């Protein structure tokens, strides 16, 4: 009997959102549990090939998201959560889930900008950041003082899970 990834991914995503909203971090214990469950799930579903699917799926988000993380546009917990999701979904569907998560995040960001009424401020901040980068000055996109630009991306990842694991995307 094959078990759908949703059985595991939705609760993991919900816990990640809960901790992200509550504490601003996704606990490593949740990530480790998710990785172990993802590995077991893939091996149970596809035997020895499942291990390769798990490793490929878990590594793809880390490789593709490295630039986003390097510039501190996304937190480490979000990257690790993407790795958990990728481990469950395998490499190809991991990419689809990343795209879906970015889409959900973009839509949610529009609502956040409208609610906070800071679209102009954020656009000016982004343009200033790009100009600094072009001048060779490296700094993280978000710093500790910039709470105005914070967004709990675990919510967008959960949205990506619902779209991908549920078969929509």
From TrEMBL:
The lineage of its organism: Bacteria, Bacillati, Bacillota, Clostridia, Lachnospirales. The keyword Transmembrane helix applies. Residues 8-110 form the Prepilin type IV endopeptidase peptidase domain. One of its GO terms (molecular function) is aspartic-type endopeptidase activity. Keywords: Hydrolase, Membrane, Transmembrane, Transmembrane helix. This is Prepilin peptidase. Belongs to the peptidase A24 family. It comes from Hominisplanchenecus faecis. Its EC number is 3.4.23.43. The chain crosses the membrane at residues 50-73, 93-114, 151-168. It holds the Pfam family Peptidase_A24. The keyword Signal does not apply.
């Amino acid at each position: 009997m094959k078990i759908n990834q949703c059985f595991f991914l939705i609760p993991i995503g919900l816990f990640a959102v809960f901790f992200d909203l509550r504490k601003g971090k996704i606990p490593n214990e949740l990530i480790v549990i998710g990785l172990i469950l993802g590995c077991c799930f893939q091996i149970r579903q596809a035997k020895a090939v499942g291990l390769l699917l798990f490793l490929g799926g878990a590594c793809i988000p880390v490789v593709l998201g490295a630039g986003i993380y390097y510039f501190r546009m996304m937190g480490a917990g979000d990257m690790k959560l993407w790795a958990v999701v990728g481990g469950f979904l395998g490499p190809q569907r991991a990419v689809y889930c990343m795209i879906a998560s970015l889409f959900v995040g973009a839509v949610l960001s529009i609502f956040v900008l409208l609610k906070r009424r800071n679209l102009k401020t954020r656009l000016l901040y982004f343009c200033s950041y790009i100009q600094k980068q072009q001048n060779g000055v490296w700094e993280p996109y978000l710093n500790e003082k910039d709470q105005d630009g914070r967004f709990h991306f675990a919510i967008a990842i959960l949205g990506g899970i619902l779209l991908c694991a549920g078969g929509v995307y």
